[in-house]
Amino acid sequence: MNIISYEDKYEAQWDAFVNDTAVNGALMHTRNFLAYHPKGKFEDCSCLIFDGDELAGIVPACVKTEAGKKAFFSHAGASYGGIVVNHEYYNGKKVIEMVDTLENFVKEAHFGQIILKITPDLFCREKSDLLQYVLRYRGYSDYCELAAYIDYADYKQDLIANISSHRLRKLKTALKNNLEFRILTEDEDVRNIHAVITKNYLKFETKPIHSAEEMLDFKNKRLPDKVVFVAAYSGGTMAAGGMLFLFGKVAHAQYLSQDYDFDDVFPNVYLYHKTIEWARDHGFEKLSFGINTTYRGAVLNTGLLDFKESFGSKHAVNRTYYKEL
């Protein structure tokens, strides 16, 4: 096998591979998605792994400094990265060869560390057990983060029956106050969602990953059929809002935040409930709520986890593999 550094001329082939050929390719691996980042934000070092003329795998990656070392990081601009593997190459012999070929390529480029954020099984066509085993087999260490998701195959049809008694009391308060759930299509509404999220994040001394302009880029240009904006209104005013990425049969919720000025009517409880209902009614098999950890999984946000669990969420582990070179 041989590796070629990514160039723009490979964009169509790359995205077709992710969408149609890979066992673990998903939306955030595509160049279309990664290109939402402004030029210059990351130093790209993505690569393609070929076996003769056959594209065997791709690795979206960027240069990053970790603990004073130049790191090959896959990928700092997305929730997960590579290696993304051709389904015809997903066997022990070929995956070992791909991992070894990538490592040699990275060493020759004078990187001191390689970091691979593996695609969670939730978004894969096949489980990633083989790839994860091979990485451990080749001496990689890992850290894990705890995620939560709804699996509609094991979810009671009566949505209320899945909610804990404590959370249900708050939902009943929200329903009594006639909150309204909306799917938003206007640019100004998306800007309002971003304002609600930003105000919410100030409480935790942080800010959203995406700007309002980037959200509008997703909506109007980059991902018009892959992103949905949801909100809860109280008396005609937005009280909570968020964004969904659509991955085939899995929807991934991001931000789902409330304006704390409306805390007495529990708009976030209502928004979670209605988002769960919307995803089920639109044929999704699973709804991802993302991770509940920070600092590479070392800190668990127990309050956030409890909140997601109270809606009947299951648990999943997202793993990142790394190796000193």
From TrEMBL:
InterPro entries: Acyl_CoA_acyltransferase (IPR016181), BioF2-like_GNAT_dom (IPR038740), FEMABX (IPR003447), PG_Glycine_Bridge_Synth (IPR050644). Residues 168-292 form the BioF2-like acetyltransferase domain. It comes from the Bacteria. Keywords: Acyltransferase, Cell shape, Cell wall biogenesis/degradation, Membrane, Peptidoglycan synthesis, Transferase, Transmembrane, Transmembrane helix. The chain crosses the membrane at residues 227-248. Belongs to the FemABX family. This is BioF2-like acetyltransferase domain-containing protein. It comes from Leadbettera azotonutricia (strain ATCC BAA-888 / DSM 13862 / ZAS-9).
